[in-house]
UniProtKB/TrEMBL annotation:
Keyword Repeat: yes
Pfam families: TMTC_DUF1736, TPR_16, TPR_19
Name by which UniProt lists this protein: dolichyl-phosphate-mannose--protein mannosyltransferase
Ranges for domain DUF1736: 111-183
Signal sequence range: none
Repeat (TPR) residue spans along the chain: 299-332, 333-366, 401-434, 503-536
Primary localisation category: endoplasmic reticulum
Subcellular location: Endoplasmic reticulum; Membrane
Transmembrane spans: 20-38, 45-66, 86-103, 170-191, 203-224, 230-249, 258-276
EC numbers, comma separated: 2.4.1.109
Membrane topology designation: Multi-pass membrane protein
Keyword check for Iron-sulfur: no
Length: 559
């Protein structure tokens, strides 16, 4: 009823075979949709299936078909278009692809994504000549990465590849080389007398070009200059062309062993390069640093290296890379924000304020920069400006618990206790696990004598974050002041079990035992606290008081 062609594809021979072939076309459309869920480029697999169907299964003569199409020949079936249901299957593939694109368009929104000039500088160029020549240069770079994948970088934007603005730029040679090779291959694919050669070259070129079309900037603007991921599928076509070229050379070469050794050498080098690149992807530090030699002009590369160093606590080195990122791209607001944060922590408040002010001037809706600017202004005791900055941040990001937390700290510094409690409450509503906001509410209520309310807030917080030892500690202090010693002791011990090296936990538990009359246990925890933090003045004073009391009790016992 049907026969396999050796590549798991079924040739239409009768009605049963037709239904079976249609089934596999529909499966192909479904798998293409799944591929597109992973990456938009996945939908191009439908185009590859159409090319494979036409050239391999139906052995379509492309040149003959084009000639008959131009002459409007009615015998197109003789050219292979209608034979074996090819036209029907291609129509089915195109209909499926169009349906998938429509569904994606409805789900993702009707407008194209918004990109900035730093993402794809050529697409923002005013001159059509500059755009066209740079797009073609990007194509040549992608082709070179297929041929020689040595310059690999996780990001090629932000000045990594300067624009070609005149024909005197030597990089024009790359464009000429690319199109010389492509035109030569296309001519051979269409005009060669060898039908097998025509099919192989057309198949290879189709597999090389079709998957790359979504990244070509021809149909819509893309958000990158070069992206190595978009040449994964085109590499199929490259491998077909490379293998066929090697086959032709091996037939003509007299010293076949030398040719074989050369190909094996290329293969071995590429395997080694693959292993090296895979090892670089094992850690962020290696990945980011590997890009420094490839794209030293890319501000994002320096930013990521700086961020990685800052996350590891190496602030001095991070500052160097953040400064370089800002130098390379003076409008890089994220680098300014992170650099301002580090300078703020190092108490270099004036420069931090300048950077953060510039960041919000460049991008007025940058909520994180507004919040950090407020923190700096609060540290400089410019409270009104800080409050305004916090509210501006909240205006641009309404669900911003960290900003409400910092706003609460500002109000607490100004003794606006009700406003502080409301701000912290907003933070916990937006982020119920915001431990710092809960803690500050408990401490403020405790310090203002509202022990019952502080206890209620503490219990509410522990229900939401039951394993937070800082909340246990704060609630234990409140319960101790309320003379609920047993419950307070249990919470102190639980907090100490979670964080045994916190001197304040041992010190406050000692105070609880001291009040409770368990003087031996009080002495023990005072000593542990002083061992962990010998400079704690309150603990030292309490310990000395306890020692004098114990000495008095010993004297009375001796008398």
């Amino acid at each position: 009823m049907y026969k396999p062609n050796g590549m798991a594809c079924f040739i239409l021979t009768d009605k049963e075979g037709h239904h079976f072939s249609v089934f596999w076309v529909l499966v192909s459309v479904l798998l293409g949709a799944v591929a597109m869920l992973c990456k938009e480029q996945g939908i191009t697999i439908l185009g590859l299936n159409a090319v494979f169907d036409a050239l391999v299964i139906n052995k379509l003569n492309v040149l003959e078909f084009i000639q008959k199409l131009i002459r409007k020949d009615k015998l197109l079936e003789n050219a292979g278009l209608l034979r074996k249901g090819l036209l029907f299957r291609i129509t089915l593939l195109m209909s499926g692809g169009a349906s998938i694109l429509y569904i994606r368009w409805r789900i993702m929104g009707t407008g194209p994504p918004a990109f900035t000039e730093v993402d794809n500088p050529a697409s923002f160029a005013d001159s059509l000549f500059v755009r066209a020549i740079n797009y073609n240069y990007y194509y040549s770079l992608n082709a070179w990465l297929l041929l020689c994948p040595w310059w690999l970088c996780f990001d090629w934007s932000m000045g990594c590849i300067p624009l070609i603005k005149s024909v005197s730029d030597w990089r024009i040679i790359a464009l000429a080389a690319l199109w010389f090779c492509l035109i030569g291959l296309i001519c051979q694919a269409l005009c060669s007398e060898d039908s097998h050669k025509r099919r192989i070259l057309t198949l290879g070129l189709g597999f090389l070009i079709i998957p790359f079309l979504p990244a070509s900037n021809l149909f819509f603007r893309v958000g990158f200059v070069v992206a190595e991921r978009v040449i994964y599928l085109p590499s199929i076509g490259y491998c077909i062309l490379f293998t066929y070229g090697f086959t032709l050379l091996s037939k003509q070469a007299k010293k076949k062993k030398i040719l074989a050794v050369a190909v094996l050498g290329i293969l071995l080098i590429n395997v080694m390069r693959c292993a090296l690149r895979s090892s670089q992807w094992r850690s962020e530090e290696q990945l980011f640093r590997s890009a420094l030699s490839v794209c030293p002009l890319n501000a994002k590369v320096h930013y990521n290296v700086g961020k990685n160093l800052a996350d590891k606590g190496n602030q001095s080195a991070a500052i160097k890379y953040y400064r370089e990122a800002v130098r390379l791209n003076p409008k890089y607001v994220h680098a300014m924000n992170n650099l301002g944060n580090i300078l703020k922590e190092r108490n270099e408040l004036q420069e931090a304020e300048e950077l953060l002010s510039l960041a919000v001037q460049i991008q007025p809706d940058f909520a994180a920069a507004w919040m950090n600017l407020g923190i700096v202004q609060n540290s400089l005791r410019r409270f009104e400006e800080a409050e305004q900055s916090y509210w501006t941040a909240i205006k641009h990001r309404r669900k911003y618990p960290d900003c409400y937390y910092n706003l609460g700290r500002l109000y607490a510094d100004l003794n606006r206790h009700i406003d502080a409690l409301n701000a912290w409450r907003n933070a916990t509503v937006l982020k119920p696990e915001h431990s710092l906001a809960w803690n500050n509410m408990i401490i403020l209520l405790d310090n203002t004598g509202n022990l019952a309310q502080a206890e209620a807030v503490g219990r509410e917080a522990l229900e939401l974050i039951p394993n937070d030892h800082s909340l246990m500690f704060s609630l234990a202090n409140v319960l101790g002041k309320s003379q609920k010693y047993k419950e307070s002791e249990a919470l102190f011990l639980k907090a100490i079990k979670a964080n045994p090296n916190a001197a304040s936990y041992h010190g406050n538990l000692a105070v609880l035992y001291h009040r409770w009359g368990n003087l031996d246990l009080a002495k023990k925890h005072y000593e542990v606290s002083l061992k962990l933090d010998p400079t704690a003045p309150g603990t030292k004073e309490n310990y000395n008081l306890l020692r004098r009391k114990l000495e008095q009790l010993q004297k009375k016992g001796g008398a």
